[in-house]
Amino acid sequence: MPTPPPTGPLVTRDTLAGDLRALGVQTGETLLVHSSLSALGWVNGGPVAVVQGLLDALGPHGTLVVPTQSGDLSDPALWSRPPVPEEWWPTIRATMPPYDPRVTPSRGVGVIPETVRTWPGARRSAHPETSFAALGPRAAAVVDGHAPDCRLGERSPLARLEAGGARVLLLGAGYSTCTSFHLAEYRVPSPVVEVGRPSPTGWEKVREVSITSDLFEELGADFERDRPVVRGTVGAARARLFPVADAVAYAERWLPLHRPRDLYVDAAPGGSGTRGRP
After folding, report:
1. Which of 166, 169, 261, 266 could form a disulfide with 193 if both were Cys (CB 3.0 to 4.6 A apart)?
2. What is the pTM of this model?
3. Each residue of 55-69: pLDDT tens digit?
C-alpha cells in the first residue's frame, strides 16, 4: 500500500522566519531554543532550514543557543532504558570515550541542536553531560567557562543567559525540556549526589546538585498561568516565548512548595532512566 503524502503544512526557511517574527522573536536578541522538528510540520530542508529560519529571525546581531547534552557519558549503573549487564559496567567505565566538545554528539535533545552543534562557527560549552552550543556574536560569552562540576547552576551558560536578558523559545517542545527551571534547583535546598563519568585521565566522580525534570510540566503550567508567556504557532508547532529570568524566579518559589527534597533523583535534564538520558 503506498505511503500517503504528508498533510502539511509545508514549512520553509522563509515561513519559519516569518512565523518567529510574528510570535515576537526580536532581531538582535539572545534566544535559548528547545525544539521538536517533527512538531513543525513538513519542513523543506529539515533541521538545516529550521536553523536558517531561526538565524534569519535573530539577524546578524542575535545569538542562538541550544542544549547539546550528552547524558550517555554517565555511569552505566544508572542506565535502565535499556539497562546493560552489571558485569559490563567496569569495562564500560574503563573504555568510554571522554567528552570532546568538537566531536561528542548530542543525545536525546533532537536533531535541531545537533545541527547547531555542527554549524560553522558554533561554540560549545565544556561540561561533559550538559553542554550548550551557540551561534552568534554573544556565543563565547554564553558558553565559555562552563564549570565541569556545575551542570546547570551559577557557573553554567544558564546563569549567563539569565543575566544577559535572554529569552526561552519552546518550539514544539514542552516545559519538561525547559532547562531554565534547573537553574532554580541550584538556588533552593536540593540534595547533592556523586556522579561518575569518563575523563581524559580515566573514570572520575564529581559531587553535584541532584537534578530532575519531574513535575516540570506542572511547574510550566502554573508559570504560564501566572506570568506573561507569549503563545503562538510556528509552522504546525505550538510555541512559547518568555524570559529566562522569569522562569528561574518562578521556579525558585514553586519548587520548595510542590516538590519535596525526597522526590529528587539524579538525572540528566529532561528525564531519567535511558542510556541517552540517565
Report:
1. 266
2. 0.92
3. 999 999 999 999 999
